[in-house]
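Technical appendix A lists one of the benchmark inputs used to test multi-chain prediction within the project. The record comprises three sequence entries:
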Amino acid sequence: MAPISYHLILSGILFTIGVMGVLLRRNTIIIFMAIELMLNAVNLSFVALARHLGSMDGQLIVLFVMAVAAAEAAVGLAIILMVFRNKETINADELKLMRW
Amino acid sequence: MIKLPPVNWLSLLPAIIPAFTGILVLCWDLGMKNEERHRLAWLGILGLAITAVVSFCLLGRNEPAFNGSYTLDSYAMFFNLIFCLAGILTFLMSIQYLHTSDIHAGEYYALILFAIVGMVVMAAATDLVNIFLGLETMSIAVYVLAGIWRQRLQSNEAALKYFLLGAFASGFLLYGIALLYGATGSIQLGKIAMHVNEHGASTILLIGVAMLIVGFGFKVAAAPFHVWTPDVYEGAPTTITAFMAVGVKAAAFAAFARVFLHTLGGIHGQWEGILWVLAVLTMTVGNITALVQNNVKRMLAYSSIAHAGYLLVAMVAGKELGGAALMYYLVAYGLMNLGAFGVIIAVGRRGEPNEEFADFAGLGFRYPLLALAMTVFMLSLTGIPPLVGFVGKFYIFSAAVKAGYLWLAVIGVLNSVISAYYYIRVIVSMYMHEGDKVPEKLSARPALAVAILIAAVGTIWLGVFPSASMALSRLSFLALG
Amino acid sequence: MDLLTFFMLAVPLVLFAAVVILHPSPVYSAMSLVVVMSFLALYFFFLDAHMLGWFQIIVYAGSIMVLFLFVIMLLNLQNDPQEHQQPSLRTASRIGGAVLIAELVFLFSRSSSSEKAAAELPEGFGTVVALSEKLFTDFLIPFEITSILLLIAAVGAVVLAKR
């Protein structure tokens, strides 16, 4: 049996990879994918904890997180499309009409 | 067959009314001409007014609902009043603003109503999942609203930046929720509070708390998580900026304070240090950066960061006094900030936003009433008696002193003194500088004038007679139990 | 889940996750993310979350990633030549990431020494029946809020993306 701490460490590593992706990359679509990776890492924690605690709550939360992720994907990609149409780029460095 | 649990309709009413109004707005919008769209705003105002009345009548009832995952208490109802105030004033200003901008979408009004549903849920949620879903409902609606002026590049950028950083922050919040769930075995705030009071804080719990602070810190625009704020506030349509600065911040603080002051109140000593540092950083960074701004809208964005700092001071002070001061100050901040944004909208014209300091030159001679209102808001934001901003700051800093955070209060007062410079700069340019940028004839509609009037009267009234609303916020905070 | 299975799933998960954030081409990133999500689905099966495993494949690997790929194709994104970052930020985030991972490993492994054994699983754990029973009783409110959330997403996406 893999103890719960293994699952939590794996989830922490995946979450950190996601955070690094957000900080390292400049292509907004890839930044967004890194955010999805973060959410997936958290889902892993929830499922492992649900298994560990023997309660279904964790699994239910994952269900809602998936719904939220789907909603975010729809709106986020619509925003990226809109920006691309108007500016012909989705590179975060070139979005500096206003000072960061 | 699944047996459905008993549904406490009364507790859901403040969320159902705006949701239903939003759907009505969406349906009515079909086949409506552009010139008629302002009717949708009046429908929205009606819905929010009903919500406010219902919330007001429900003040004083305290009953848990849905197995303790949702609640009907005075705390939530008090915040509902703030959300409705923000919503109604935003609608009144939108009637004018949509006329001078190129936003031709009835969905604009519906999305504001849906965002308010999310806020109401956040304030009433006593369960981490509900808080998360309420936050996402509100945020996703506001992401869209920030970018709804599609032809304007700044609005596009604002939406993208707000979306990416908001989603990033909700990842942290969610991780915090997962760790809290793992450490305590429950997602209900009541059970978490019991666990924390019995067992104290484990390491996992503390990492979770830190993640929650990051997540909420982003939403309330606390330094160092504030980098998105100036760009998003400057780029978004001005009405939406006002709505974000007041509504979103109030909702985030509602959940933030419920989780930290109530649920995690038992380990107050473990997180007060972090929030102390955040509060000092937020106040100082906000005020110092606001000094060098030339755009009034951007200056107000930094000022809103600084005000998040004052509100964090109230959170650190905690207990009855700090909590009540937090809620009172949110009302105060809402009134004066909405009013200030209203004046910015009044000065702007189609194609000329007129948002620079120089654009306000001479306003005092051409439009004495408008300039007088702006003066009231600026003095109140500075914290000059007898306006509401002064009373709010007084309550916050005295709560901090009484809770033993003398230095925090001193830093806060010093920051208020710094802030006087840039607020008074607006007044100076209105009355002491000659300028011709202010148009001969403002196209302000009555609705906008009403919004500014409400905000100005509220700013003065609550400042002169603070006791009733202070008593109300204290009672509401005590309902947290 | 025994240790062998754990490592057989964990190693590819981390590797493909690294590809997602390091590969210069968005298409490769997206495809690796699909792989990560499929492995996670497998992971969920081994953790007695059968239904969630299927949802993971259908919702994440299926619809969300297809949406991503669709947008990448629509925008015709190639390897981004401007994909560069100030070196200082780059090293800073690498060091930060390493420190964060080390810290997490340390903290979790330390707190695991005192951990209790996994609880006994109730019957039908992770099945559709158990999931839906919870969904319509304890999680009724979140369920209803999600409906508003999806409505907002639909309305919002149309408002922003229409011409």
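The two ends of chain A are 49 Å apart (CA to CA). Chain A has a mean pLDDT of 88. Comparable benchmark entries are summarised in Table A2.
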